[in-house]
């Protein structure tokens, strides 16, 4: 039973994704391989192929006997993500991929290449149950939680594309992962935390990313934030706040009626104290809704009330509007004023790079478009 006051969000019951090597912790893989009738050391070989070489093609496993490859691949590397379409922009350095999961659910990931890093934005749920009105994913509702391996495989697919030089700029490597795609990561806590572990485990047990380079975003599930602080994973927390006052945030982020601003910001500050990781405060600037100068002042006050010092960094996001939505990005002058007011209060602030606008950059837009096309074909 959940603890008193703890939020329990249950995705609709569906068939489980097939078991994959990435679903298993390093200590579980040897037993799984032995249960299949193979030598335990094969587990390390398979992990090396997948996590180090980003390769799940048994035909290339020259260190595994040919007679064993197909059986091991069938048992531990079932296909999880099938690409539906890729759309690129920014001269090929930004690539958004729509994936179809084993049960037909659709999710999205985005690879963004910068001069000094490559960031992959991953989904943690098919859809989302948070119902934020300005978010394309939230308006589609929750289909189901993703498995650990489905989350990890988005990163491995990006790494494989970079290995092969399929992204503009030539071969490269993934340096950063952000859980800012479809879904609320902390509503799928077990799979999210296990996926983070696979990302930061040293190769060949995992992908070997730095803890500092992994960011988990949340709309403010207080029990999940506290649990993540206790996990020892030590990754960066991003809090999608979007409003500094309860009256507005109740509308923009409905979960605020359960976990109001003061509580969620206070818990984010506790995360900073526990982990030493500065928290990112995500704030989508929406024209005439939350971009008033007085709200910038109130945001600075709320952050200062939670704790002294520069424990949080405000990341302002020019809203990427969804088709037909009344919500749109702030005027440039209002954005500049918002920034100046935060800076005047001593709050570290940046405006996020607006990549992906021309490729349905807002999470959920590509999936929604594909579902609409399927519905139109069915009705034809």
Automatic annotation (TrEMBL):
PROSITE patterns per the UniProt record, alphabetical: RADICAL_SAM
Catalytic activity field: adenosine(2503) in 23S rRNA + 2 reduced [2Fe-2S]-[ferredoxin] + 2 S-adenosyl-L-methionine = 2-methyladenosine(2503) in 23S rRNA + 5'-deoxyadenosine + L-methionine + 2 oxidized [2Fe-2S]-[ferredoxin] + S-adenosyl-L-homocysteine; adenosine(37) in tRNA + 2 reduced [2Fe-2S]-[ferredoxin] + 2 S-adenosyl-L-methionine = 2-methyladenosine(37) in tRNA + 5'-deoxyadenosine + L-methionine + 2 oxidized [2Fe-2S]-[ferredoxin] + S-adenosyl-L-homocysteine
Catalytic residues as annotated in Swiss-Prot or TrEMBL: 108, 363
Chain sites annotated for binding [4Fe-4S] cluster: 128, 132, 135
EC assignment: 2.1.1.192
Compartments (UniProt record): Cytoplasm
Note on how the cofactor is bound: Binds 1 [4Fe-4S] cluster. The cluster is coordinated with 3 cysteines and an exchangeable S-adenosyl-L-methionine.
Family the UniProt entry places it in: Belongs to the radical SAM superfamily. RlmN family.
Functional summary from the UniProt entry: Specifically methylates position 2 of adenine 2503 in 23S rRNA and position 2 of adenine 37 in tRNAs.
Name of the protein this chain belongs to: Probable dual-specificity RNA methyltransferase RlmN
Organism: Sporichthya brevicatena
